[in-house]
Amino acid sequence: MKSVIHWKKLAKQRDVFLQKCSIDDINSEIEKTQRHFNSLLQENVILWQNHNEKAVRRATLDVEIARLKTEVENIERQGKQMLENRGWISKLADELSWNPWPPEYHQLLQKRYDLTSLIVDIERSRPYCINPRNSNQDLLAMQDRAIRKLNRLKEKKIVEQGKKQEKQEKLTHLKAVAASAMGRTRDFAVAMRPQIKKSQHCPYCDILLQAEDCHLDHIYPVSKGGHSTIENMVFVCVRCNQKKKHMTLNQFIGKFHLNRDRILAKLQELDKAY
């Protein structure tokens, strides 16, 4: 009973721990659970093989024991019949102090003793068979329940993370709108700079971006009402930033005859609005 309570306490602690885990931790827990049950399945296969071998050996020995017991019963019947046939001789032998039992009777007694001893030895050597606690189907069902529980928790975490990210994006957008209303859009862009995802190449001209040759551009320009949001800002090279100035993306692409499909695909890859 104490061990059961201890196991339930550990399971509750594990559930509390998983509630606080990240999605990566839950994925790691799923992989660990799969490895654990795979090892249990392999061990269970070996246990069942050993159990089946012992069961076959035990059944064979049971048949042999039954045969020997039948033979002992036959010997006992023969001895009893021999005693009944020699009842009157036995009384005469007692008076004359003479042994009336023929050698066949002593041979029967010795054979009975030998067979009885053999039965005892065989019964001691019979393997003790205990069925493995779980079948492979039981283990697979347990694995399925454990993984489904972790997947439900993972889906819940993903939904919570999506809501949290959506809330953060709305908050950032409201801050950008407030900064725009106060004429501080560019100052807010500087504050947002560490949160902007940086590509290895300029999304406009596709040259390699260097740390010193990297400007933050508003895809929809501030002069036309663009906000300093993550979706509206992208790192570009100095040359493209200077050439674009206050133009919209379509005006910039049309004026300098740039590859529209490549630019849009790159911006879409960076989760930008255009």
Characterization of the model:
The protein has 274 residues and is mostly helical. It has 2 domains: 18-151, Orthogonal Bundle (Helix Hairpins); 185-269, DNA Binding (I), subunit A, CATH 1.10.30. Helix content is 70%, strand content 3%. It has helices spanning 2-19, 23-85, 87-96, 103-125, 136-181, 185-192, 238-244, 249-256, 260-269, and strands at 215-218, 233-236. The protein has a two-stranded antiparallel sheet with strand order 1-2. Helix 2 packs antiparallel against helix 5 (136-181). The longest helix is centred in the N-terminal third of the chain and has 63 residues, at 23-85.
Q: What's the number of domains?
A: 2
- The number of E-state strands comes to 2
Largest sheet: 2 strands, antiparallel
Q: Tell me the strand order in the biggest sheet.
A: 1-2
Shape: rod-shaped
Question: Can you give me a brief rundown of this structure?
Answer:
The protein is mainly alpha-helical.
Secondary-structure topology with pairs:
Elements: H1 2-19, H2 23-85, H3 87-96, H4 103-125, H5 136-181, H6 185-192, E1 215-218, E2 233-236, H7 238-244, H8 249-256, H9 260-269
Antiparallel strand pairs: 1-2
Helix pairs in contact: 2-4, 2-5, 5-6
What are the main properties of this structure?
mainly alpha; 274 residues; DNA Binding (I), subunit A; Helix Hairpins; 9 helices
